[in-house]
Amino acid sequence: MASTVSGSLEDAFALTLLRDRAPEPAVAGVQTAGATPDALLRQAREHCGEAPRLRRLWSLRGWFTGRLPGPWLVAAAFCLGLAGAGLGRGGELNILTPPLLGLLGWQLVVFALLAAGALRRGRHRTTGTAIPAALATRITRHLGAVEAGDARRLAGDWFGRARAPLAARWAATLHLGAAAIALGAIAGLYLDGLGTAYLARWESTFLDASQVAVLARLVLGPASLVTGIPLPDADGFARLAGAGVPAAPWVHLWATTLLAAAVLPRCLLASVALRRGLERLPLDDDPWLRTRLAGASGRRVDVRVQPVGYRPGPRSHERLTEALVARFGAYAVTDRREPLRWDAEPSADAGADVGQEIVILVSAAQTPEEEVHGPLLDGFARAGADAGPLLVAVDTAAYAAERDRRRSRVAAWSRLAEAHGAEVLELEAD
Q1: 327 vs 35, which has greater pLDDT?
Q2: Which of 95, 126, 330, 399 is deepest in the core (most CB within 10 A)?
């Protein structure tokens, strides 16, 4: 089924902040009847920029959405290439210059690894965000935006949710950085030669003139065909080992080689990755947005929430609201009552208002017992007979790390609820 609501990576980050940091869905933002999804997303971004609890994290969105430190890395890469791959000292250009050969070899190795990774895309699709996730976590902790545990949880939730576009954005940054190094090297060649008359020669401890001729044709041959600058034969390379010749043709050959073998391919790969990284994300399943879409449509349902045997926290009420929105397809307005003892009976005022649903909220840590909870369910079912079927919401937070026990306890509550004509809503733990 195609997504009906989509947004940018920044929109998704705003929704993640509201879900992870806001006390409950009803607090963050104002319900606006008839609001469009784009208007609600704009409301989410504005709230993140204004709410005291969210403002500082929102100011770090560049690090979380992959916009930073991309420009800084690309600029640093250009400076590195500019400083490290210029002409040699003493007015000479070694045509076998190790920095340029190393740069070219590195590019070719990366292209081979990318090709191998493309053949094993299934294994590598989930990689690429470990470094930015750790970086963003350290930044939030360093700035004191959240506590260490919250920083790790937020980074884990966010980078798990936006893994694919973030990996694409970081891939684009790395490709642009590699292109910037090569461009810096090209700029270094021309800037060094602008005010100095360099001579081209070669020297090697292990290679003779014929071997250097083969290596030069292998590395610079394509550039020679493109530019029309001829390469010397073995005798010509033997003479180059002596006094040398004007270096300008060799600078052009190296610049053309780096441009064709490094800059252009990397820019192409960066554009492909950036296109993936800028795609809009499906947001239909986001609880915060789904709650507001239900409210904006004008649909609402009144719910009386009666905890039994425990006092639920704000996150439990938030998960209940999310479950009710999904259950009724409408914005849930909850009337929360004080918890009853686990062995209590419905009181005289337990009856629901006209059209009001009744939800019994229990913890999965409670063991459902027919002789104790059965009469309780029957009593509330009679009290809400004018509304829909009684709902039993099972809060599984107590067994968040114990999947088997959680499933077993939810199944036990489901059997009891079914025996008394009620339905079970499972509130999944974080």
Answers
A1: 327
A2: 95
* Cβ proximity of 274 and 172 under 8 Å: yes
Report yes or no: 185 and 99 within 8 Å, Cβ to Cβ: yes
CA distance 368 to 375: 12
pLDDT of residue 187: 92
* Contacts for 238 with CB less than 8 Å, ≥ 6 apart: 209
**Helix (DSSP H) and strand (DSSP E) numbers for the chain:** 18, 10
Is this model's pTM higher than 0.90 or not?
no
Annotate 67-121 with DSSP letters as a single string: -SSHHHHHHHHHHHHHHHSSPPSTTEEETT-HHHHHHHHHHHHHHHHHHHHHHTH
Higher-pLDDT residue of 17 and 126 is 17
Question: Are 111 and 125 contacting, i.e. CB atoms less than 8 angstroms apart?
Answer: no
Stretch (H or E) spanning 425 = strand 423-427
- CA dist., res. 409 & res. 417, Å (int): 12
Query: Environment class of residue 391 by beta-carbon count within 10 Å: exposed (0-12), middle (13-18) or buried (19+)?
Result: buried
Per-residue pLDDT, averaged over 223-229, amounts to 93
DSSP string computed for 173-222: HHHHHHHHHHHHHHHHHHHHHHSS--EEE---SS--HHHHHHHHHHHHHH
**What is the average pLDDT across 75-94?**
78
pLDDT at 6 over 50: yes
Which single residue is written with the structure tokens 């993640």?
16
**Which of 47-51, 133-137, 192-196, 266-270 has maximum average pLDDT?**
266-270
Rounded-to-integer distance, Cα 212 and Cα 96, Å:
8
Other beta carbons within 10 angstroms of residue 126's beta carbon come to: 12
116 residue type, one letter: A
